[in-house]
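Lecture 7 notes: from sequence to structure.

We start with a single chain of 239 residues. Read the sequence below before looking at the structure.
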Amino acid sequence: MRTPTFQSASILELRKRLFARHGLYAVRNTRQLLTLMDDNGDGQMNRREITLGFEGLGVSLEEPQLEALFVVLDLDGSGMLSTDELYQGLRGQMSAHRLRLINRLHDHLVKRFEHHNAQQRGGLGARVGGKASAGSSKASSANNTPATLQDDDGVATKFLLEEFSCDHFPDVKSNKRRAEDERTLFFSELDGYLVSPPNGFIGRAKMVDFYQDMNGAYENSDAGDDYFTFMVRSTWNFW
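Now the structure, written as tokens:
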């Protein structure tokens, strides 16, 4: 008889193997591929489909882990898992501490974006009046027009690209990936179609959803919390 603790540990081990294989975007990539794992397109997957799907991800699904997935996630006992059930199980739950950090990060980026736009508007006004102003050179941008803040507190991806740093990312530090390639990959994942179609802005929902998917790359411990915090703050110069 498998205990609940054993089942949870089996799913945790599977999550670790996914991140070891696919890096920070493991759950994100798995989420995008779940529909391909569903052979007949009905949104439900049986044991065979799930096993073959994970083989396609380069991760062999051992019997205890397969059993654990169904015991923990197949709440109606149908012998099938929906793509959402499987994704949510692999993703896990972000702690309240980490969720607060991401919400504070988004608030911080919104304020910096608003300040940036205010500087642009001020610089434009000064140039129109024929006067130079402090920060007017920084205010210049494509088409000399400031990006606007969306109703949902969206921050322009163009602005975020300027704020972003990935020198501390494991693959960049180890020279496995160039910084410019990491930046391109990061933003393609951040501004994908999973929450809403890309529109040039990142709202709170997209930011939180993205980091919830990356959350499993960091251990559920004080040390894991510290590393998660370091990665987030270093990425956005949020100190």
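DSSP finds twelve helices and four strands in the chain. Keep this in mind for problem set 3.
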